[in-house]
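Margin note from the TA: students keep mixing up input and output lines. Inputs are the sequences; the output is the structure of the whole complex. Example:
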Amino acid sequence: MSWLQALIIGVLYYLSDAPWFFGEGYYVLQRPIVAGFLTGLVMGDPVTGTIIGATINLIYLGHLNVGGSMPSDMAVAGYIGTALAIATNVSTEVALAIAVPLGLLGTIWWVGKMTIDSFFVHWADSYAAKGDEKGVMLMNWLPSAVMMLVFKVIVAVVILMAGVPLMESFLNVVQGTNILHALEVVGGLLPALGIGLNLRAILKNETMPFLLVGFLLVAYFQISIVGVAMFGLVFALIYMQMNQKEDASYGG
Amino acid sequence: MAANVENNAVQETDKRIKLDKKDIRRSYWLWQFFSHANYNYERMQGGAFAMCMAPIIKKLYPDREEKIAGLQRHLTFFNTNPNVGAVIHGAVISMEEERANGAEISDEAINAVKTGMMGPMAGIGDALDQGVIIPLVVALGISFGSTGNLFGPLLVLIGLPIILMLIAYNCWMKGYSLGSSAITAMLAGGRMKQLIGAAGILGCTVMGGLVATSVSFKTAIAFNIGEQAFDLQSQLFDAIMPGLLPLGVTLGVYALLRKEKFTSIQIMLGLVVIGFVGGMVGIF
């Protein structure tokens, strides 16, 4: 891990919650699958980065950012977790076990940012009172952008430069013990949480059979997820057609 | 509905200050980029609402006092789903335009549209994008990406923003052309509910498949029954149904989340402890 690589990963980490990618940073750049791919590019191995990022992303599949709360910082898990995993050459399940605590740490800065940003909106107030619309617009992005860029780059560089040697010595210590296997078990279990969280948002008693059909298609016939999505699309179309018939009968 | 819109259009023929398509688009892009640029506890997206309205206010109100009032009117608390919620901005712009041209629209009326619509739009929007569209696209991306296929991350990186921006842009323009009646039009005939229902079916099917491919959980317990060696995983669980344990764990997590007795963080820690201890002692 060079300083330059750490710096670029820090900037990418900043961009994942910044306006500059069509305002879609926190929808797209934050996803560990994208983070893993981009980090892999920086580290010279986009394929490994994508595989690790895809695995980490499983836990955050049901990530809901509702009403300004953030349950976990998946961007730090994606960018820094992938970088540490590539640099120390660990399995994807172990990478997942590293990424989770990193993601939990991220909630700390979120609270700080949401609080400090409250002051900047008062700066916008004073520009509004002067009728200066350019000032109002500027206050909505500049102060927060400067603050977050500096903060996130520093955090990423410190964790990455200190984390790689730390992890290497940890891996030396646990060599030959059951610990890596135990971490892999944890890594296999955690995606259940990501899926469970998403199910809380969309699963109802009426849609339970569809969940089971999707599961059985893969469990028994090893159909790809794209194939499962095709079946899902057909089910959705059938549902819409049945509802349309009802509407028509009301009209007639 | 259509007849009403036409009537409004006839009444608005002698406008003094008319916004053109470029103004509406510019305002949209300001929101698209900066909706969460200064997201904060006190006003949430309030600063961003003011930011995207600022050029509109400047054009509509040449009078300094009116301009100040307009900027302050939109620097208030605001929080909604940035994509589907864009219908609110469109509606508010059309209300501001009418107001600047002499229509009797009070501050309260504009505030009522904003605060009244932001909750329902957040509910519908979050259910649609964070609940279904994003997990679906990301799940497809993961299924490609986990085998090292770079199409996976590229699908999320390029495909997802295009889908979300198409929703946001269309909602924005719909809001502007329908004005304050936009919300009733959007909810008319339960079409939105039907769409979310269909999307939920698609989402649940894919999530079911994902349980089988992504959650891995096996027991290593084996013992002898009399002289016969018995492997719990291959001879019992796999014999009943492949992936029985992952399905059980996932539905268990879902049931715990649904009861709201435990937070997701507590469940995560529980999974970590169970998996780690079980892995150390050799049960899993």
